[in-house]
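Handout, page 2. Input:
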Amino acid sequence: MKKYSVVSLLVFAAVMFWAVSCIVPEPASADIVFELVNNSGRTFREIWVGPSSNSKWLNRDKFVNRNGSPTRLASGRSLTLWPNMSGREDVRFWDIRVYTNDGKKHEWHDIDLVKYYQVEIDRRYTAHFSR
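Output:
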């Protein structure tokens, strides 16, 4: 049986520790929580968030208050949102749709909500992302 020196075993252990520490798992989308900041100058009268992979908006993508009415977000305010993750644990990229108080629809697509914590909408309806 071959004998190994203490130094070679320590080097091997250090290399293995480094290799394992380099394997950082991707955060699970089940942990998605993000802040939507409305700086558009208009109130968002409806807010929808759904997977980018699905071209259809489902009723569960619509954010509602406890009384069942649509969640509203006034300009200059922010709201923390938790998308409905039931059956969507593998989803990383999401779309956001809002309807403003003047009846217009605005959408933003393929937002990495695992990477970004904050989505800010400006007066031109451009989305800005922060970690």
